[in-house]
Amino acid sequence: MMNDFSFQNTTKVHFGKNAVDKMAAEISKYGKKVLLVYGGRSIKKYGLYDKVREQLKDFELYDYDLVKPNPRHTDINEGGRMCREYGIEAVVAIGGGSAIDSAKAIAGLAKADTQNCWDLVEAKKPIMNALPIFAVPTMASTGSEMDASCVISNLETEEKKGYNGPALRPTVTFDDPTNTFTVPAYQTACGAVDIMSHTIDTKYFSRDDKMDMLYRMMDEHLKTVVKWAPVAVQEPENYDARANLLWAAAWALNSFMTCGVRQFTSVHAMEHELSAVYDMVHGHGIAILMPRWMRYILNENTAPQIARMAYNVYDIPADMPVMEAAEKAIECTEELFFDTLGLKSHLSEMGIDDTRFEEMAVNACGAAGVIHGYVDLTPEDVVKIYRMCL
Amino acid sequence: MMNDFSFQNTTKVHFGKNAVDKMAAEISKYGKKVLLVYGGRSIKKYGLYDKVREQLKDFELYDYDLVKPNPRHTDINEGGRMCREYGIEAVVAIGGGSAIDSAKAIAGLAKADTQNCWDLVEAKKPIMNALPIFAVPTMASTGSEMDASCVISNLETEEKKGYNGPALRPTVTFDDPTNTFTVPAYQTACGAVDIMSHTIDTKYFSRDDKMDMLYRMMDEHLKTVVKWAPVAVQEPENYDARANLLWAAAWALNSFMTCGVRQFTSVHAMEHELSAVYDMVHGHGIAILMPRWMRYILNENTAPQIARMAYNVYDIPADMPVMEAAEKAIECTEELFFDTLGLKSHLSEMGIDDTRFEEMAVNACGAAGVIHGYVDLTPEDVVKIYRMCL
Q: CB–CB of A4 and B13 under 8 A?
């Protein structure tokens, strides 16, 4: 029987070609002193930075330009300091998941009793107070623009953790698919894999009974990405492709489809080690791991859920036997990620060998000594899966 | 190209077998003086009323028991008076759409500058201020528990209109599928038709380009009802059936799937006249009208959208030609509503003849003289559709 659940997502979304034009009206409800949070040079190169400044010309703007692919806790502390010093009243992220996560982390820190964001990580308490957060996503990937958590890295302790809470959910997100037109093919592919993984890894394969309607919506969510990611890679300015991917990214993590399903993240846990040790792009690490993990956990018990993906996402005829269909789902996933989207399929192609697999596997399993998930994985299992990726 | 859109739905949902147990904690954030809004005797008969009173035993409770199938504006005014007299701080609806709509109408009136709710109807301004609204739905039907509008009737002017605005969206809804176990087969069937109509009538058939992902979700939303409504009618205590229908009801109107689609309501406009003149149950009126309307508007332009329903909702093979598939979709809909769910299929079976059709058609078309929709309908069109229902 399905689990009970609670659901709420308060973020307001302005979606479309002129979404950014609504920024001044939305932010002015909260104040005049605004911290702009960004990092990548592309927002300046392609004019989005100037567009936002023009839109917010009547505000007092401060620049935090320290955003990096894995936001660092020392940078977040600097952002917190800026908020206190300048009396910041709203935080605006312009960029991908790292920019939005940085804005959230800073917004929470600005209202906290500490000046060190890592104290909030270690306190493990939901963040109930933060500056209002606004997001202008420039990539379809993490869906951070509609969720309530952030991930930050501590280079001193080599940890990648985060905090979350209702106050970290963006107040308004301005989602203009044209702001993702300039995302290169490789990043587009990695983002698409990330979107799919948020459905597959955390809920599509799971031990819990899912509500029929939501399970069906997950099928269609995955089909949406399977259909449009290749189009976006081939035709970067295809509005329909970019719009579907951008909205799919938000839906993957905004809790709509998750209701009643305990969320696990087996592949994410294994991937974090690839990112940490080899600085691999997250979506690419997921792409390499995901089909191998599916193959590793495939057995008579798991076959029906994996086969569903063949029938409902990849349109494999319903009369194909379950085990065969499950294998087909894995093949179709590999074909999509590696052939159609063009991502390298093996760790060895990226200069990675097995020398650190044992250590990485232990870290991936953490203090529990096991990755709890759809199928629990021990360090020995994880090493085997890493080896399948070589 | 798809339209731009804005989306926000702030309602918190507690969904499951013990949802009502969370009432005291949620409502106590807003105050102690609570107006209980209900009407039907069934909530007393089956113990839900006592369960809510027990849950709220530390609150100061006032009873508004005037809810009727079509909430009357004079009753709402009485509710507003009670709120002012007793200093009500929160309004709790227990019941179906009429109870929840009544609570919303009262909550808005309580904070308005007038003591007559019809002034709010005529002002046609979004309601930005209201008492906090809490809902305990006992039927899967209108989805009022997650939307921001209410409909009330003025018996003096023979009008059925409403008001809406962000302040009318329930703060928290407590959705326990077991609270719908006692809904009789006929009401269950009418509710299911209502849920489907909120997707079909307002967005599934429409002139606007739909976002592919959301169009797919509409398919699955409809499939969910097609699958589970017959089960709920046959097995009233089937939890999965009741849960899927209850959540599908909310999703039909909580704006998730509507994004970017202008909403029309052709069938609803025609049905309002049946309800008004013959006091017909809304969902039953919709059931009789919907397939006839589909048949009336079927032509080469509309066939692809109607055929989609055959392929994607009723699992008709994709190689059936479009026009044939569109006709099949209409037949399947009739079969579902009339054979499987057991609703009477003709107005004549309900003692209704054509004597008032012309007058009703003029009223349905309103001041504009036309029902704007997927296909615009003149009074002559509407009379023809009514005749198809005889």
A: no
